[in-house]
Design brief:
CATH architecture of the largest domain: 3-Layer(aba) Sandwich
Oligomer: single chain
Number of helices: 9
Shape: elongated
Order of helices and strands: HEHEHEHEHEEHEHHEHEE
CATH class of the largest domain: Alpha Beta
Length: 274
């Protein structure tokens, strides 16, 4: 992979969010200088197998605490990750704690200040935290197997963090309920026929959804935003909520949700050219 699609192309009708992964170390103070040039990038890419790493982890005590960004503590993704990890590594005591990234990062900052650091690994959507923590000397440098194959924009050169996944946010609709008049672009969302038929995530509760609405305002203007408000959208917490409302036939359109434009499901997630 030699290049990425432009940010504007990727975000033509949706906002993108990434989940970053970083391993925390509690030794440096907030005012500590960044690691020296000699220390940075010194580690080689991991060559041990998963089984070898598993045995090393058991020897170190066999405990792992992860702060994972997400909507609900017992969300499907969190439950699935726990089950899969425990099946593969049954002798590791995993504590996977799911909450919004904007809460996890504050907890971690407080723990740094009080020398009470809890997580070994953080998986957050608030990517600015990783670059800040690196400057403060908070992140341990580690290059997992395959590190060099990741696109350079999705990994820190020194191994302080890597991107775990990239998610696009847009809107979706119930194909059968929308019929031939399905909304093809965000401009169609303000058509009067969709009044009372739209569900949305709270934009001020999720930074990716807020960015999506900021792009809508930038692209279509604040008059579009006022017209959208007239549609009386139903707001709920969590980026899963629009899809749930549409799947349950409570609404026809859901705004502020991740998805796949190639998926063949009763709901179509939209990523258009403009």
């Amino acid at each position: 992979m030699t290049s990425l699609p432009s940010r504007r192309r990727l975000l033509a009708t949706g906002a993108g969010a990434a989940l970053g992964l970083g391993t925390l170390g509690a030794t440096a103070s907030p005012a500590a200088a960044a690691p020296t040039t000699a220390a940075r990038g010194a580690g080689a890419e991991e060559t041990r197998t998963l089984d070898e790493l598993y045995q090393a982890a058991i020897a170190e005590g066999g405990k792992l605490v992860i702060y994972a960004g997400g909507d609900l503590a017992n969300s499907g993704s969190g439950a699935g990750a726990r089950a899969a990890f425990r099946q593969r590594f049954p002798q590791i005591d995993l504590n996977l704690i799911v909450d919004y990234s904007k809460y996890h990062d504050v907890r971690v900052d407080n723990q740094f200040e009080t020398d009470t650091l809890v997580p070994d690994l953080v998986q957050l959507q608030t990517l600015h935290d990783f670059t800040r923590w690196k400057r403060q000397g908070r992140l341990l440098q580690y290059k997992p197997a395959g590190f060099s194959k990741l696109h350079k924009k999705f990994r820190d050169a020194d191994g302080a963090w890597v991107a775990g996944m990239v998610i696009a946010f847009s809107y979706l609709y119930d194909v059968a309920a929308a019929g031939a008049d399905a909304p093809q672009t965000p401009l169609d969302l303000v058509d009067p026929r969709w009044k009372g038929a739209i569900a949305s995530s709270y934009p001020h509760d999720d930074d990716a959804v807020l960015y999506l609405y900021a792009l809508y305002a930038e692209t279509y203007g604040w008059d579009w935003m006022a017209d959208f408000a007239v549609q009386q959208p139903q707001f709920a917490r969590g980026s899963f909520s629009p899809g749930t409302a549409v799947t349950n036939k409570e609404k026809i359109i859901g705004v502020g949700a991740g998805g796949n434009p190639l998926a063949t499901t009763p709901n179509r997630w939209v990523m258009t050219d403009g």
